[in-house]
Amino acid sequence: MAVDIKSLNHNQLNDLISKAQQRQQELRKEKVAKLREKIHALIKAEGYAFEDIFGGRSKGRRSGGTVAPKYRNPANPEQTWSGRGKRPRWFNDALKAGKKEKDLAI
After folding, report:
1. Is the pTM of this model over 0.70?
2. Structure confidence at residue 32 (pLDDT)
3. Within a domain: 37
4. Region Disordered: what ranges (predicted)?
């Protein structure tokens, strides 16, 4: 399939580039899937499981347990925050009221 790129306008050229990049990604995914199948077949042929070779690692997040709280709500000492993730409403309200982060630190 020969495409005369000199006859294409700007939009047509961008469309061609986009389609070529999508096709390149599809080909890469297909190649990776075939390689993965070959690796699993080789491991199985040798009498092992994937976990025996590469361990029981999961691709998801690690659950590292709980994190100690860094901040405490002065109005309600039961409310704490570790400093990770989205700020709790009470923390934002305290900042708006003129408190500083160090004032809320445990």
Report:
1. no
2. 97
3. yes
4. 58-89
Same domain, 47 and 77: no
| Long-range pairs for 86-95: beta carbons < 8 A, 24 or more residues apart | none
Q: Which residues contact 16 (CB under 8 A, 6 or more apart)?
A: 3, 5, 8
HSE of 36 in the Cβ direction (CA atoms, 13 Å)? 6
Q: Is residue 60 classed as helix, strand or coil in its secondary structure?
A: coil
Q: Both 50 and 75 in a single domain?
A: no
At 21, list the tokens. 């990049």
CA distance 78 to 57: 36
The CA-atom distances, in angstroms, between 37 and each of 32, 50, 51, 52 are: 9, 12, 15, 17
